[in-house]
């Protein structure tokens, strides 16, 4: 997997520091997110997803957390990735956000058949805005 954050020089050291910080302040969303990046850098996708989910639960309006969550999931669990994408679009509709641009870049790699089925399902749920946004992001970034 391509690294999301290639500035992590010593992942093991950063992991230990972040785990200590989280132990002292378990509600620190940024620390959970940074730990997700470290695990992603270490190619431990399951732990990265777990930490990223925790960061999102603590701060659901942070577009960076959603973008990274999508990045982590889109090759392994498209359903989970697209479900997060729907939530991302509903909570953070600012398309000028740099993290939104990162998500749009990632969408270029999705399975088109899955995406079309997912978009059709959204339309049956009266989520036309979200369906249209995903459709546009995939095919007209």
Could you characterize the architecture of this molecule?
This protein is mainly alpha-helical. It folds into two domains: 10-59, Tetratricopeptide repeat domain (Serine Threonine Protein Phosphatase 5, Tetratricopeptide repeat); 63-141. It is built from eight helices and no strands. It has helices at 11-24, 29-41, 45-58, 63-73, 78-91, 98-107, 112-124, 128-139. Helix 2 packs antiparallel against helix 3, helix 4 runs antiparallel to helix 5 (78-91) and helix 7 (112-124) packs antiparallel against helix 8. The longest helix has 14 residues, at 11-24. The radius of gyration is 15 Å and the shape is elongated.
Radius of gyration: 15 Å
| Structure summary, number of beta strands | 0
Average pLDDT level: 87
In one word, what is the shape?
A: elongated
**Number of H/I helices:** 8
Q: What is the quaternary state of this protein?
A: single chain
From N to C, what is the helix and strand string?
HHHHHHHH
How would a textbook summarize the main sheet? none
Uncertain ranges: none
DSSP strand content: under 5%
Domains (count): 2
Question: What is the CA-CA span between the terminal residues?
Answer: 22 Å
